[in-house]
């Protein structure tokens, strides 16, 4: 009975979504390949937009190229998208004049098996022409929200119960009524094909990953360190979930995977694989973006500075005391801060409080290869009055430059920390210690700037 009701709800919400859907006229595949080739040569980073949509999937990272090569609908030419420049025209070729007229929000959902399955991955993107940036909010699939006609449930079930129409409504209502303009749905089947077409990806595996589940026919066996992963092993990396970090650790690996695929796609040799990449996108992507909108997004993404791609995990906490220990309960204060800083959406009452540097927990991780360097950093920070500082296990991949990882969207505090340290590259991603607000990954440059005698 529950299954029947779920199907009925899905049909209801799908009908509502259909009223907003765009025309189903198809593009010329040859034309798309030609346009994609021009964009790629224009800027090897191509489209950060697409990259994210691509890397969306960590059950199915499917395509930095998604928006451009999706075999989807086109408008009838009579109605221009509400977020395109009103002077924009599309005549079958790339036009440099195509522009975003305002910030655009896109919900990306990745599922295992088919489009109607639970959303194993959820990302909310903000493409902002005002400051030439792309913001990416990772929404843990176990986030507890209210789903109409269902009740308090995990957000991943919204797509199952009502398709993209219900999923976008639930995400919007749960996140301070943030407007959502379009959606992209991707299945996991394309991940292996994508990575194999790219001839594998280089990624640093931070820990040994071993897991076996005969019921899911899932076997994971990865060694720690730098690896070249083929499609099967990339899927293992994407799906691994340890007991300590749970789904948050999996979401964190999604962001690492995004960075790795991004780096691979900058290789000029990828141009030769464009036809295969186009085919993957057409097979595994469902979206209500029109061709005109896709071209504008691609043009926008091609001009983005890598530093203006910023990623964050929706703040919250796992509840070991609840009936379902994997459930993720949103932190209202943290949510307000992230939605304000990343999406320009303020809470209904008041404004988010800016947290001072002294109030934040800071994790210090040695990535220099020099023993005990993290202890010296902690001493320096405590001398500056910062008490919530602790050392975590060394990062085994030795790096030249110190990084300040902005885990929870505390931009101002991170800038203040950079001033205290006197060095450090900002990394806007949730790839540091999950129990901290800021993570300092100490590189070799620390010793060069602060000799042992001065610490």
Describe the structure.
With 455 residues, the protein is of the alpha/beta class. It has two domains: 2-343, Aminopeptidase (3-Layer(aba) Sandwich), CATH 3.40.630.190; 357-454, 2-Layer Sandwich (Alpha-Beta Plaits). It contains 14 helices and 19 strands. It has helices spanning 2-20, 29-42, 48-55, 66-69, 158-174, 190-197, 231-239, 246-265, 274-284, 291-302, 332-343, 373-383, 411-421, 445-449; strands at residues 104-111, 119-128, 133-138, 144-147, 151-154, 182-187, 201-205, 209-213, 218-222, 225-229, 285-287, 309-313, 316-318, 328-330, 362-366, 389-391, 403-406, 425-427, 438-442. The strands form six sheets. The protein has a six-stranded mixed sheet with strand order 11-6-1-2-3-12, with helices on both faces. β15 (362-366), α12 and β16 (389-391) form a beta-alpha-beta unit. α6 (190-197) crosses α7. The chain is globular and about 55 Å long. The chain starts with a helix and ends in a 6-residue tail after the last helix.
């Amino acid at each position: 009975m529950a299954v029947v009701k779920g199907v009925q709800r899905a049909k209801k919400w799908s009908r509502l979504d259909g009223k907003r859907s765009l025309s189903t006229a198809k593009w010329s595949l040859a034309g798309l390949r030609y346009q994609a080739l021009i964009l790629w040569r224009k800027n090897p980073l191509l489209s950060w937009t697409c990259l994210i949509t691509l890397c969306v999937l960590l059950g199915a990272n499917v395509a930095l190229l998604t928006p451009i090569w999706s075999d989807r609908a086109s408008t009838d030419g009579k109605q221009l998208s509400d977020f395109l420049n009103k002077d924009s025209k599309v005549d079958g070729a790339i036009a440099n004049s195509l522009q975003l007229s305002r910030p655009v929000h896109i919900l990306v959902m990745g599922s295992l098996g088919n489009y109607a399955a639970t959303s194993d991955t959820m990302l909310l993107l903000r493409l902002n022409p005002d400051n030439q940036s792309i913001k990416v909010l990772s929404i843990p699939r176990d986030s507890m929200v209210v789903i109409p006609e269902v009740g308090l449930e995990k957000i991943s079930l919204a797509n199952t119960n009502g398709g993209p129409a219900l999923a976008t409504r639930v995400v919007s209502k749960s996140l301070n009524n943030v407007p959502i303009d379009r959606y992209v749905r991707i299945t996991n089947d394309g991940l292996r094909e994508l990575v194999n077409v790219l001839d594998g990806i280089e990624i640093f595996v931070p820990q040994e990953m071993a897991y076996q589940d005969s019921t899911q026919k899932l076997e994971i066996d990865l060694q720690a360190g730098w690896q070249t992963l083929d499609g099967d092993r990339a899927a293992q990396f994407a799906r691994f979930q340890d007991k300590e970090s749970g789904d948050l650790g999996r979401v964190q690996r999604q962001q690492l995977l995004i960075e790795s695929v991004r780096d691979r796609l900058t290789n000029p040799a990828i141009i030769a694989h464009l036809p295969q990449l186009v085919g993957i996108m057409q097979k595994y992507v469902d979206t209500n973006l029109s061709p005109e909108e896709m071209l504008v997004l691609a043009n926008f993404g091609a001009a983005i500075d890598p530093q203006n791609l910023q990623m964050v995990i929706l703040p919250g906490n796992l509840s070991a005391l609840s009936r379902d220990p994997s459930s993720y309960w949103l932190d209202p204060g943290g949510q307000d801060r992230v939605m304000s800083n990343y999406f320009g959406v303020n809470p209904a009452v008041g404004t988010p409080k800016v947290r001072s540097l002294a109030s934040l927990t800071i994790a210090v991780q040695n990535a220099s290869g020099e023993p005990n360097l993290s202890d010296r950093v902690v001493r320096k920070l405590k001398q500056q009055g910062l008490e919530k500082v602790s050392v975590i296990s060394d990062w085994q991949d030795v790096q030249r430059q110190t990084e300040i990882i902005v885990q929870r969207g505390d931009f101002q505090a991170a800038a203040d920390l950079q001033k205290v340290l006197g060095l450090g590259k900002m990394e806007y991603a949730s790839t540091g210690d999950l129990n901290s607000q800021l993570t300092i990954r100490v590189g070799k440059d620390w010793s060069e700037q602060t000799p042992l005698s001065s610490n």
